[in-house]
């Protein structure tokens, strides 16, 4: 449920997300004009039409399921984050006005989720990974795949938080149902984004926006960011394990114990990894994500680029 | 791909289509936002807003069958999304479905959210059924949307149908060469088609832009025979917005 229909959000959430979207779009308009200059009109028009058309193509994922491209990160790698935000906003707007895909009242929330947070977080991850690894064809494809997957998860989490703030669904089940759904969609998005980007890099490399090779300072910043993120994740996991489960306490307060067991049965139940300790679980989580992304990136580029 | 059927009723003369598109967009937005902003359980207020939407449908001379047909697609989606509420909202369990329970609070929220969504959805469907895309664009431009966005929308809408046709042609060509067998091959084929679509969209966009510059394009797309504001439209719109705000406010004061 990436497009929130009308009726699911409360008035304050609609107003707040709309205000945030207007502010975000104002910055995007300003920055994209500086970046694209007189190429702006044709490039944005073409990208809008492309995202719209690409969302109509259904990729079979196996087992009778299919997914379509969301396209935020893919367009971001071509046009840069600001122009991509405008493109995604145009798409969300047409979907709401012409096809009733997402409500008119919920337009602010949908814009914030898909155009601003989706593209913004995706491009942040993309640049961050390239800062860590340096720019190369394979690395860019792998970074775009991870960014595509990550941005989809962020969109899902944002939707869940907005639904919870609107008092439509309690946060924990919303996070599991909507966030979990988006985590699955994110795998598809990551693979499709990486595969299409690899092909475009081979056929029309000039379409893909250049990313300057990271300077020593950029790299230092990216590594520092990674260390902070891992520390924060480990710290949060440690706190969560020492204070017996804030999530479970919240669930008990909301009276949803009976649901919680059904939804939250994860492979690492209660975040206790086989080797013991929440810290290990956090570190293993980070490593697994990077290894999976690396493998997907390598597999995709090797196939597409014939290297 | 044809899109004539989308604007079929935008050319019918009615009190709604005679109003400037900006007023139509504002009215639909007011009704949709007002409905969506109703607090849970305000059934009477929802009923009044639903009546208002029915009045607008009658005034627009759009057949109910068309409205219902256009509602069907998005409604299925809304129904699916609100069905989740049945199971996710805690409360006293009434019915058990496998490991999950449907609670009384869940049932109430499901009903009201679905009601709100349907009324807001109908308002949006009436807007799009009575307003052609160029008119919609004119309204968005009058509402001071950034020029970059409205131009992207205008060019994007023109390119979209060409691009969809192009993607279909690519798929047909691949299928006629037996490139469609098996899930893996189909997936690979779709990646190729998407990438080709991307580069063709940009190529066509640049070409169209150059042609437009040659014909004197200076940065905005003029609309033919733009409808302007008149006193009656402004009055009706003001009354409608005040009424919707009053209904939403009174609902909030009561609940």
Q: How would you concisely characterize the structure shown here?
A:
Chain A is mainly α and 307 residues long. Chain A has eleven helices and two strands, in the order H-H-E-E-H-H-H-H-H-H-H-H-H.
Structure characterization notes:
The complex is a heterodimer of chains A (307) and B (255). Chain A is an all-alpha fold and 307 residues long. The longest helix of chain A is centred in the middle third of the chain and has 33 residues, at 171-203. Helix content of chain A is 74%, strand content 2%. Chain B is 73% helix and 4% strand. Chain B has nine helices and two strands. Chain B has helices at 15-18, 21-36, 43-60, 64-88, 104-130, 133-142, 147-176, 183-214, 231-254, and strands at residues 93-97, 100-103. Chain B has a two-stranded antiparallel ribbon. In chain B, helix 2 packs antiparallel against helix 5 and helix 4 (64-88) packs antiparallel against helix 5. At the A-B interface, helix 1, helix 2, strand 1, helix 4 and helix 7 of A face helix 2, helix 4, helix 5, helix 6 and helix 7 of B.
Order of helices and strands of chain B: HHHHEEHHHHH
Question: Strand sequence of the main sheet of chain A, in spatial order?
Answer: 1-2
Biggest beta-sheet profile of chain A: 2 strands, antiparallel
Report the structural category of chain B.
mainly alpha
Largest interface: A-B, 73 and 84 residues
Query: Helical residue percent of chain A?
Result: over 70%
- Given the structure, what is the number of helices of chain B? 9
Tally the beta strands of chain A.
2
Main sheet makeup of chain B = 2 strands, antiparallel
Q: Top keywords for this entry?
A:
heterodimer, A: 307 residues, mainly alpha, two-stranded antiparallel ribbon, 11 helices, 74% helix, globular, disordered C terminus, B: 255 residues
Topology:
The complex is a heterodimer of chains A (about 300) and B (about 260).
Chain A: H1 11-36, H2 40-54, E1 59-62, E2 65-67, H3 72-79, H4 81-99, H5 107-133, H6 137-165, H7 171-203, H8 216-242, H9 246-253, H10 257-263, H11 278-305
Antiparallel strand pairs in A: 1-2
Helix pairs in contact in A: 1-4, 1-5, 2-4, 3-4, 3-5, 3-6, 4-5, 5-6, 5-8, 6-7, 6-11, 7-11, 8-11
Chain B: H1 15-18, H2 21-36, H3 43-60, H4 64-88, E1 93-97, E2 100-103, H5 104-130, H6 133-142, H7 147-176, H8 183-214, H9 231-254
Helix pairs in contact in B: 2-5, 2-6, 2-9, 3-5, 4-5, 6-7, 7-8
């Amino acid at each position: 449920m990436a497009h929130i229909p009308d009726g699911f959000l409360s008035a304050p959430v609609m107003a707040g997300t709309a205000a945030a979207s207007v502010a975000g779009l104002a910055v995007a308009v300003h920055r994209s004009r500086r970046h694209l200059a007189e190429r702006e009109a044709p490039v944005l028009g073409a990208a809008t039409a492309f995202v719209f058309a690409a969302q109509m193509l259904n990729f079979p994922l196996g087992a009778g399921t299919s997914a379509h491209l969301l396209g935020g990160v893919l367009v971001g790698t071509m046009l840069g984050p600001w122009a991509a935000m405008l493109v995604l906003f145009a798409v969300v707007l047409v979907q709401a006005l012409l096809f009733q895909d997402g409500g008119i009242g919920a337009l602010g929330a949908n814009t914030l989720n898909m155009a601003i947070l989706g593209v913004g977080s995706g491009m942040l991850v993309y640049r961050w990974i390239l800062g860590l690894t340096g720019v190369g064809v394979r690395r860019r494809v792998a970074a775009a795949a991870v960014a595509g997957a990550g941005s989809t998860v962020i969109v899902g989490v944002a939707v869940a938080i907005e639904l919870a703030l609107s008092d439509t669904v309690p946060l924990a089940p919303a996070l599991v149902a909507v966030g979990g759904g988006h985590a699955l969609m994110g795998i598809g998005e990551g693979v499709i984004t990486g595969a299409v980007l690899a092909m475009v890099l081979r056929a029309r490399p000039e379409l893909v926006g250049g990313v300057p090779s990271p300077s020593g300072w950029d790299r230092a910043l990216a590594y520092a960011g990674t260390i902070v993120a891992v520390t924060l994740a480990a710290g949060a996991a440690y706190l969560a394990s020492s204070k017996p489960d804030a999530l479970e306490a919240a669930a008990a307060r909301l009276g949803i114990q009976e649901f919680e067991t059904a939804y939250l049965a994860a492979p690492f139940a209660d975040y206790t990894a086989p080797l013991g300790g929440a810290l290990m679980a956090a570190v293993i989580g980070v490593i697994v994500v990077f290894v999976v992304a690396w493998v997907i990136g390598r597999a995709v580029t090797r196939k597409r680029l014939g290297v | 791909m044809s899109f004539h059927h989308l604007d079929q009723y935008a050319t019918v003369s009615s009190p709604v289509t005679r109003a400037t598109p900006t007023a139509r967009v504002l009215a639909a937005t007011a009704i949709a936002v007002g409905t969506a902003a109703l607090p849970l359980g305000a059934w009477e207020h929802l009923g009044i807003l639903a009546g208002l939407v029915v009045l607008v449908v009658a005034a627009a001379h759009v057949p109910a069958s068309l409205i219902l047909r256009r509602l069907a697609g998005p409604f299925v989606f809304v129904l699916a999304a609100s069905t989740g509420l049945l199971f996710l909202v805690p409360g006293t369990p009434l019915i058990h479905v496998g490991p999950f329970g449907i609670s009384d609070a869940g049932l109430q929220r499901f009903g009201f959210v679905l009601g709100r969504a349907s009324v807001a959805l109908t308002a949006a469907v009436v807007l799009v059924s009575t307003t052609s895309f160029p008119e919609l664009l004119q309204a968005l431009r009058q509402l001071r949307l950034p020029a970059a966005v409205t131009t992207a929308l205008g060019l994007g809408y023109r390119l979209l149908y060409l691009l969809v046709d192009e993607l279909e042609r690519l798929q047909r060509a691949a299928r006629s060469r037996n490139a469609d067998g098996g899930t893996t091959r189909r997936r690979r084929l779709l990646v190729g088609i998407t990438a080709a679509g991307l580069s063709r969209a940009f190529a066509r966009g640049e070409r169209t832009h150059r042609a437009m510059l040659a014909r004197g394009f200076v940065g905005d797309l003029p609309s033919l025979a733009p409808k302007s504001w008149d006193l009656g439209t402004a009055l009706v719109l003001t009354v409608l917005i005040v009424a919707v705000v009053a209904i939403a406010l009174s609902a909030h004061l009561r609940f």
